Amino acid sequence: MLQLRASIVLKELVQTSPKRSFSDIIRHKKTLPNAYTYSAAYPDGRISKLKTVCNGRPFILPLAGRRFLCTKTEGAIDPTAPVKKDESVQETTAEKKAGILPSLEDLLFYSIAEGQERIPAHKFITALKATGLRTGDPRLKECMDMLKVTLKSTSDGVMLDRHLFKKCVQSNIVLLTQAFRKKFVIPDFQPFASHIDTLYEKARNLSGGLVADYIPQLAKFSPDLWAVSLCTVDGQRHTVGDTKVPFCLQSCVKPLKYAIAVHDHGTEYVHRFIGKEPSGLRFNKLFLDEDDKPHNPMVNAGAIVCTSLIKQGASNAEKFDYMMSFLKMMAGNEYVGFSNATFQSERESGDRNFAIGYYLKEKKCFPDGTDMTAVLDLYFQLCSIEVTCESASVMAATLANGGFCPITGERVLSPESVRDTLSLMHSCGMYDFSGQFAFHVGLPAKSGVAGGILLVVPNVMGIMCWSPPLDKLGNSVRGIQFCTDLVSLFNFHNYDNLRHFAKKHDPRREGGEQRQYTLGPLDYESLQKELALKDTVWTKVSPTECNEDSSTTVVYRMENVGEGN
After folding, report:
1. Which residues touch 488 (CB under 8 Å, ≥6 apart)?
2. Where a domain ends, among 458, 489, 520?
């Protein structure tokens, strides 16, 4: 018989139990301990003991994020002690006898090994990539570095036993456990990626549109180039097409520049100089609102004024370095470059922007002491910043993730700046197509004349589509098609009902259709079903029958879960 207090330990234990069925684990019981005892340490110093027999019977796994203290029985060994190679067999036998609780690293090994005593390293890598994570993910650097070192020390350079595997993954076990237990925002990533590939192929067959030629350097790109990259808020990545070809951000830099300005100065200050309304006019019109301010930061006039707010008082060189540093942080230190040829081309063909600049100067739209020609130079430079689809998708994912870069975990932008940026991208980001895009796609986005579309699915992922041929409104033909098809297939539209819109897939749910079922607080009936137990195991008892601290009102007793307790 086992007495267990109904507490946060059990709640977390149930909520964090892996989706892998107990029968799968018990099937390999020869590799698991026959019995174990552990104690959970509480913040107030209390200790609650739980003994479970797993000799072919169900057992409960330790909860994630809480340190467990193993109670050593006679003959038990210390699992933290260093293991000598010639003692590995003896240790395995000793563990079975002592009944030490399997660690998260052990359970991860068992799930990949499928009953084998050793696994090839490539099997682990393949399984890792299937979750959407990359081996080059900065968060997995320690794990990948240790894997390389460990493989060099093995006789065949390929196989890993349980102890070597644990050595490799222990530094990143929390992230890896989340990935393999499908706890990321897109739990079934491979089917989702297959859908993305299908949408990509459909858009690739389009042949309309023209490559922008009013900036000579842009006219050199092939109209056949087409790429899509995505990055989720958990750092899951997928790319298809010409995703490593650098191209200039052009107008896609406008929301990023605005986000940095709001991050530095706050919303109120920035909007002393720039409005929030769609203009209803072409993006490069010489026109201001009734308050003599640019309509919004997504048109050229607003973007030029926004440029004047970046690191005021510094030189252009310092401002440019500051922006590059910020954008690299947003991209998780992936590729962010600069095309001097495009910058020179922009400046030589920038008469309209110079006209806008002088008009803004006449209307006193800039902060006091602003050098208008220096602002225009920096404006052209920022438009000429280069990215790839892959690095830009991480930038978009940083916006989707509330200002945290998903692949580094670093806070880059304030929540206020991200919220304001996404709001204006939604209403003003797609030139004169903004209203239709908001209606049909319903997601924040920004397009650029280089052919890029920076798309954000808030709290889910960021996407960069790139194809140079543009429609008559200046948006990528293939990019618009892809975005439209995306929300036709998935319920990503901001106003899709997540509960009743049955016609669309929801990749945020495991299986793509039904919401993942989670156990509620103290839901013992559901727990019993989870454990696949036929007999009643939970009965309410009086607190006085329990030897533990009786500060919790309700106490439950677990019965008949195994023999020989």
Report:
1. 504
2. 489
DSSP 402: T
Could you list the pLDDT tens digit for every one of the 565 residues in the chain?
344 443 443 344 444 444 444 444 444 444 444 333 334 444 444 444 444 444 444 444 444 444 333 333 344 444 444 544 444 445 555 454 445 677 899 999 999 988 889 999 999 999 999 999 999 999 999 999 999 999 998 888 889 999 999 999 999 999 999 999 999 999 999 999 999 999 999 999 998 999 998 888 899 999 999 999 999 999 999 999 999 999 999 999 999 999 999 999 999 999 999 999 998 777 778 889 899 999 999 999 999 999 999 999 999 999 999 999 999 999 999 999 999 999 999 999 899 999 999 999 999 999 999 999 999 999 999 999 999 999 999 999 999 999 999 999 999 999 999 999 999 999 999 999 999 999 999 999 999 999 999 999 999 999 999 999 999 999 999 999 999 999 999 999 999 887 776 688 999 988 765 444 443 444 445 545 545 544 444 444 444 444 444 444 444 444 444 444 4
Q: Which of 423, 391, 417 is nearest to 402 (CA)?
A: 417
Same domain (yes/no): 279, 416: yes
Q: How far apart are CA 248 and CA 478, in angstroms?
A: 18
156 and 225 assigned to the same domain: no
Q: What's the rounded Cα separation, in Å, for the pair 392 and 407? A: 13
Residue 238 domain boundaries: 193-489
Question: Do both 227 and 272 map to the same domain?
Answer: yes
Please tell me whether residues 284 and 137 are part of one structural domain. Answer: no
Would you put residue 204 in left (φ > 0), alpha (ψ -120 to 50) or beta?
A: alpha
* Residue of 176, 184, 175, 177 whose CA lies nearest to 236: 184
Report if residue 483 sits inside a domain.
yes
CA distances from residue 443 to 129, 187, 220, 462, 509 in whole angstroms, order as listed: 28, 22, 31, 11, 20
State how many domains the chain has. 2
DSSP-derived letter for residue 142 is H
Domain end call among 457, 489, 521: 489
> Is position 275 within any domain?
yes
pTM value?
Answer: 0.75
Is 180 within the bounds of a domain?
Answer: yes
325 within a domain of the structure (yes/no)? yes
166 Cβ partners below 8 Å, 6+ apart? 103, 105, 106, 109
Same domain, 162 and 275: no
Reference 195, options 444, 516, 494, 505; nearest CA is 505
**CATH assignment at residue 481:** 3.40.710.10
Same domain, 124 and 266: no
Q: Please state, in angstroms and rounded to a whole number, the distance separating the CA atoms of residues 218 and 272.
A: 34
- Closest by CA to 115, choosing from 83, 162, 157, 164, is 162
Query: For residues 474 and 430, what is the distance between their CA atoms, to the nearest angstrom?
Result: 9
- CATH number of 124's domain: 1.10.238.210
